[in-house]
Amino acid sequence: MGKRVLIYGGIAALLAVSPLFLNAYWTDVLNSIGLYAALGLSLNLIVGHAGLFNLGHAAFYAVGAYTAAILNTKYHIPILALMPLCGLTAGLFAMIIARPIIHLRGDYLCIVTIGVGEIVRIALINNVFGITGGANGIFGIARPNVFGWIIRRPQDFFYLIWAFVALTAFLFHRLENSRFGRALNYLREDETAAEGSGIDTAHYKLMAFVIGAAWAGMVGNIYAAKMTIIAPESFSFWESVVMFTLIILGGSGSIPGVLLGAFLIVGLPEVFRGFTNARMMVFGAAMIAMMIFRTGGILPARPRRYALPAKAAAEESA
Amino acid sequence: MEEFFQQLTNGLAVGGIYALIALGYTMVYGVLKLINFAHGDLFTIGSYLGLTLLTSLALTDRLGPGAGILLLALMVMGLVALVGALLERVAYRPLRHSPRLSAVVSALGASIFFSNTLMLIYGARFQVYPQNILPKTAIDLFGLYIPLVRVLILCTSIVMMVGLYTFIQKTKIGTAIRAAAIDQDAARLMGIDVNRVILMVFLIGPALGGAAGLMVGLHYGQINFTMGWVYGLKAFTAAILGGIGNIPGAMVGGILLGVIEALGAAYLSIAWKDAIAFGVLIFILIVRPTGLLGERVAEKV
Predict the structure, then answer these.
(1) Which of A5, A172, A189, B222 has the most CB atoms less than 10 A away?
(2) Among all residues of chain B, which has the CA nearest to that of A48?
(3) What is the pTM of this model?
(4) In whole angstroms, what separates CA A258 from the centre of its chain?
(5) Taking CB atoms and an 8 Å limit, are A284 and B112 in contact across chains?
(6) Is the pLDDT of residue B298 over 50?
(7) In the beta sheet, which residues pair with residue B138?
(8) Each residue of B231-245: pLDDT tens digit?
(9) For A125, which residue in chain B has the nearest alpha carbon?
(10) Which of A187, A259, A303 has its CA nearest to residue A41?
């Protein structure tokens, strides 16, 4: 236990000081990893904990990013102040989409979410409602301004993004160890038994979907702030696949696993330059191998442990 | 009216292609209850193999267009069937007794693996089929000029589908496939080698998908490594539309979807063409998940 805290603490500390000795390029790579880590953590609630296969997560990410971009460029609202609203629009969108389809069996849900993701992308390209800017997207998004400090350099974004990742990891850690998280795991393992124990499975599934989507919408806000320009191609099916793959490889339902997955999938191709083209091929093969030999991922979720109150008390007195 | 019939015949030809791919989804689903996500990529492999064999062997120059393309189609179907069998052996068989979703992840992995392998071999750019293979004639049908390719595609796919249907209904292996689809354990107790049945399904489905890939190459002239998943998704929509696990359903669904899409693109909006198919998919799954003629897919919640 103590050893694990020490290792994770050491990695976090190393990460926190890394912009001091990394150049702008590598800091930017860490920023991408951070964005995918936050997206992965949000998708992990849906895929890892509730066991709902969502391959259209990029759609919710897009809704958040576009909400931020449109309101920022049209009404000049500071972009970070829009973050709760981005979460709200993405969450509402997810609720409207998911309500009628959430009862579909796993693989069908997967197909439908792919369809939803594609419809959203096509709608963005076709300049739906005349506000999404078509295939060119939206540009000229203002830099975020935190109490007079304008976030511009990759080093500045590094702290914004990773602070958000840390907050995400903390909140999702609390969530997965709550009554809510236990209910999700129960219905993932055995839906009938969960239903029999009085868990409103449809409600919990829907909530997991909406919370995960809302969080992706907030990440979309940060993405829009970082890029200052967004286009439909940034929210393609492959983005959803990358998010999904990093969870499966890292360890679904496990926060350290998802973070490791983000480092592997986004970071490795940067380290091995020749690897960039081959990366998806390798990850595809790794997904098959992982399912056959190590279903839980590289860092699988640790089983829940509970000490019996009486035993714990006895141990204390002994 | 002229345009309507042009779009209708175009829709029928594309629908024939969807139906051929849909058969692969539906057969695998019928026996294994697994959505073979990699099926769309087997289709793409078919069209790339077709291109390579077409340009390297020059069969159409040596044997003439008719016999050349027939031989080419047989080679492509055989090779894609082998890839399909290999896929089953490597990615699906070890997971047959695992939870369903593990197999789904494995299928997704296989799909990513195939499409990116094609990209590494052939490059990310569109590949172009030689344009002088099929004669560019049009058939005069009651004053309506329909390109010969469309008619050939529709006829070929109908012949293949009827052939498959007869095979499944009349032969001993076909009966075994149907038995395994209804109840694997009972089929095994009756002396059916279920592994062989599954292998058979993974030979036939990909072979048909490969043929469809070749047709797309010959019809549109352009192929890309990512096209598999768009066609795959649409063919899957077709399978759901007709009722998944149901062979006539896949045929009906494929042709219906092709026609809906062609007419929708012509009369509603061409820019939303792909969205129409996905809209149909979502609509069907919400309103009638059993499809037009098929099994129940929604979980009771």
Answers:
(1) A172
(2) B101
(3) 0.85
(4) 9
(5) yes
(6) no
(7) B147
(8) 998 999 899 888 887
(9) B271
(10) A259
